């Protein structure tokens, strides 16, 4: 796969050719006295990739690999680092290796947008290994072997970059990270036919690819500026119950899943593969504590145990059926409570 050649970065300020004008001087932020321009925001709502079936073509698109991990933003200031999840939770203490690496950038100030991953022995990000490094769902362990693959730069030394087009932010990000190989690394951009890149990604058991429009600013939400194309569909669903196993005593046979449609839950099928017997027993113990007489979705069937939607399942599947249930789903693990923003919406 070929990396795209870089073009020179545009200057931070685009009015350099305009005549100078005087104006009211903005007061400096007392917490950031050396930054006379844009104060660092406490949080930036993330730009999200819209799922499409085929990659777009054209010079206006940039292509990267899709990483299987936790979306994070890293806020770096003199003497202070904050690592925030997609939902805005402060997980600085959960990623000490990334925090330590981020402190080496000081006294520069910046906000990096990226994905925390843990690589397996083949050098492929493994979501299960990342979860285990954090102590599993509800665990409190610090992930000491995680790496941030940074793919965007939202703020740099007093300048809010979110209004700049992506290609210029990308060039600045490459200048900042260079060839770093520690706990913060650059997510590479590829100059290759996107269909071929997707084929290579799938052949290496990666999750897929991301396409980003080069001329767009950083806009929060799922705007279509970023697109994701998956090798296999993989999403987060709420667990609303289970069917007991007929073969293994004290275990689940399958999990009942739901997605969100507005404020309501909608049943999207069940998943009965992907977990070991020990996991099946552990899931039953956890779900038995959540039994409810007022389930979020009314389901009929023998032996179904309905629960409050307090647990989240990461599920891999091939497609949707015509009745809007998951086709060939496989359980990949439980997600953290902090990941409620990840629940699939219809």
UniProtKB/TrEMBL annotation:
Pfam short name (any one): DNA_ligase_A_C
One MF annotation (Gene Ontology) recorded for this entry: DNA ligase (ATP) activity
GO biological process: DNA recombination; DNA repair
EC number from the UniProt entry: 6.5.1.1
InterPro entries: ATP-dep_DNA_ligase, DNA_ligase_ATP-dep_C, DNA_ligase_ATP-dep_cent, LigD_ligase_dom, NA-bd_OB-fold
Alphabetical UniProt keywords: Ligase
Gene3D superfamilies: 3.30.1490.70, DNA ligase/mRNA capping enzyme, Nucleic acid-binding proteins
Annotated catalysed reactions: ATP + (deoxyribonucleotide)n-3'-hydroxyl + 5'-phospho-(deoxyribonucleotide)m = (deoxyribonucleotide)n+m + AMP + diphosphate
Protein name in the entry: DNA ligase (ATP)
PANTHER family, per the entry: DNA LIGASE 1, DNA LIGASE 1/3 FAMILY MEMBER
């Amino acid at each position: 796969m070929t990396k795209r050649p870089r073009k020179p970065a545009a200057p931070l300020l685009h009015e350099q050719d305009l005549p100078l004008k005087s104006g009211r001087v903005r007061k400096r932020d007392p917490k950031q006295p050396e930054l006379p321009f844009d104060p660092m925001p406490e949080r930036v709502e993330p730009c999200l990739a819209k799922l499409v079936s085929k990659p777009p073509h054209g010079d206006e698109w940039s292509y990267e690999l899709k990483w299987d991990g936790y979306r994070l933003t890293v806020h770096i200031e003199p003497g202070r680092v904050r690592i925030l999840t997609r939902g805005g939770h402060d997980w600085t203490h959960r990623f000490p290796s990334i925090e330590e690496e981020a402190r080496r950038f000081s006294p520069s100030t910046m906000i990096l947008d990226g994905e925390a991953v843990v690589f397996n022995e083949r050098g492929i990000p493994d979501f299960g290994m990342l979860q285990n490094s954090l102590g599993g769902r509800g665990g409190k362990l610090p992930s000491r072997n995680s790496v941030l693959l940074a793919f965007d730069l939202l703020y740099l030394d007093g300048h809010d970059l979110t209004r700049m087009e992506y290609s210029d932010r990308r060039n600045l990000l490459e200048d900042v990270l260079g060839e770093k190989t520690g706990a913060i690394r650059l997510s590479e951009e590829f100059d290759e036919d996107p269909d071929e890149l997707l084929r290579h990604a799938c052949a290496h058991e990666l999750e897929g690819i991301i396409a980003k429009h080069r001329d767009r600013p950083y806009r929060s939400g799922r705007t279509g500026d970023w697109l994701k194309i998956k090798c296999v569909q993989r999403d987060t669903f709420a667990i609303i119950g289970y069917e007991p196993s007929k073969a293994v005593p004290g275990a689940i046979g399958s999990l009942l899943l739901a997605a969100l449609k507005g404020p309501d839950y909608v049943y999207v099928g069940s998943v009965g593969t992907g977990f070991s017997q020990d996991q099946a027993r552990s899931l039953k113990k956890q779900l038995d504590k959540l039994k409810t007489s007022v389930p979020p979705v009314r389901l009929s069937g023998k032996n179904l145990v309905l629960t409050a939607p307090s647990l989240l399942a990461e599920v891999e599947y091939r497609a949707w059926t015509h009745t809007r249930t998951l086709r060939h789903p496989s359980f990949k693990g439980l997600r953290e409570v902090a990941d409620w923003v990840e629940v699939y919406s219809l």
